[in-house]
Write a structure and sequence with these properties.
The complex is a heterodimer. Chain A contains four helices and nine strands. Chain A is an alpha+beta fold. Chain A has a single domain, classed as AOC barrel-like (Beta Barrel). Chain A is elongated and about 75 Å long. In chain B, strands 1-2-11-10-9-7-6-5-4-3 form a ten-stranded antiparallel sheet. In chain B, strand 10 and strand 11 form a beta hairpin. The longest helix of chain B has 20 residues. Classes of the chains: A alpha+beta, B mainly beta. At the A-B interface, helix 1, strand 1, strand 2, strand 3 and strand 4 of A face helix 1, helix 2, strand 4, strand 5 and strand 6 of B.
Chain lengths: ~210, ~200
């Protein structure tokens, strides 16, 4: 009976710790896209390397499989060509993106870091370089909750991955975008046309004191 | 009994949280830098892209399919092209990934060409470089002679992260074409030479 109480206590403690982790009250808040931002939906027309869904982030066999590059030096990275569409659904810009698994992830802080570097070109208008240190914890949390059979609508709403502050968002640009300070916020979702891949929405706004 | 249960509960919670804190996330192996010291101060590091082996995917499929025709000039000279590559060091090891966008943007005196590069070495950081682009914020003082790199095919390093975060300077790209085969595929080597120096005074 004593042994049963100890085993039960250990198991319940572990379950409690996992529940606390999934509902971490100290997890950093993540911004949503500002209504004043220029908003584009994006979808990858080409994708190569590791996919940073739950399987690629944690190496656990859940969700779409990750197929990393064979070369060890780039096994924690991926590269994509993105098509950005405007509010009317028309192609507005072309982008390349390189994403790398971060090396400072910490599950206790609900932080699974991914560094992404994006170069967007609006034909005959201008280019922008964007850099982001994303937190993809919400993807992992969503998978864990789905796995546990707990209703979770986060996947449909979009995963907020941008941080409030900390990195230089818009690095620079050319043409109409040269020298103008901006910041951007991004949300991810699973691509409806290709469930193995992520798609997203990106909001680019002017840099103000508020953001 | 209850005391034992509560003690085991607390222990189970603590042990689980400790185990979680040591979760083994994947890390990229680090390859040593092959940078050489320059006489005038600064460092030179050269990166190589072997074509067609190191090209990822087909750039044409991405750049023409979904775009309005007006995005491209009729002669094809200033169409936008997005390319992805594997990048090698001087010893031929694949150490990074690069993207290159070339296109035409609005300029003060009409249309202007731009070439943008993102070079990411997972274990070391990223180099963001451009011929035609301008960084936001303060631009570091750079030598007028572009640190010896040829002006027509060179640009500035706009930003660096991690190992490259306190460096500024220039890059130049050079294409050595060995042959163009019957399918129109270029065989050769694209060389990216970076000459950077510290921004720390």
């Amino acid at each position: 009976m004593k042994a049963l109480a100890i085993i039960l206590g250990l198991v319940m403690g572990a379950v409690g710790a996992l529940a606390l982790l999934l509902n971490n009250p100290l997890q950093p808040s993540r911004p949503s896209i500002s209504p004043t931002a220029s908003v584009y939906d994006w979808r990858a027309s080409e994708f190569h390397g590791a996919s940073f869904g739950t399987a690629g982030l944690t190496r656990l066999p859940v969700g779409p499989r990750s197929q990393p590059f064979v070369a060890a030096g780039i096994s924690t990275a991926n590269a994509a060509v993105l098509i950005l569409t405007d509010a009317d659904g028309q192609p507005a810009a072309l982008a390349t993106r390189i994403t790398v698994l971060g090396e400072t992830s910490d599950l206790l802080r609900s932080d699974i870091g991914v560094s992404s570097y994006t170069n967007i070109i609006w034909p005959n208008y201008g280019t922008l370089f964007l850099q982001s240190n994303e937190n993809r914890w919400s993807l992992v949390r969503d998978t864990a909750l789905t796995f546990a059979g707990i209703p979770n609508s986060r996947a449909k709403e979009g995963f907020r991955i941008s941080r409030l502050a900390g990195v230089r968002d818009v690095i620079g640009g050319s043409g109409a975008f040269a020298k103008i300070g901006r910041r951007y916020v991004e949300e991810l979702r699973w691509d409806e046309e290709n469930p193995e891949r992520l798609a997203g929405t990106i909001g680019i706004g002017l840099l103000t004191d508020e953001n | 009994m209850i005391k034992r249960f509560l003690a085991a509960f607390a222990l189970g919670m603590v042990l689980t949280l400790i185990a979680i804190s040591f979760y083994p996330f994947q890390k990229a192996p680090r390859f040593p830098s092959s940078a050489a010291v320059l006489n005038n101060g600064g460092r030179e590091e050269v990166f190589f892209i072997r074509l067609p082996d190191d090209r990822l995917g087909n750039p044409r499929s991405a750049t023409t399919a979904a775009f309005p025709r007006t995005a491209f000039a009729s002669d094809g000279n200033d169409r936008i092209v997005a390319e992805l590559f594997r990048v090698r060091d001087t010893e031929g090891r694949v150490i990074g990934i690069a993207s290159r966008i070339t296109g035409t943007v609005a300029g003060i005196r009409g249309a202007a060409g731009v070439t943008d590069w993102i070079l990411v070495i997972p274990s070391r950081g990223a180099l963001i470089m451009s011929r035609g682009g301008v960084p936001v914020g303060e631009i570091p003082e750079l030598p007028a002679n572009r640190m010896g790199l040829p002006a027509p095919k060179s640009g500035i390093m706009m930003h660096g992260t991690d190992e490259f975060s306190e460096l500024a300077g220039f890059y130049a790209e050079k294409m050595n074409i060995e042959k163009v085969d019957s399918a129109g595929i270029v065989h050769g080597e694209l060389t990216l030479t970076t000459r950077l120096r510290s921004t720390v005074q």
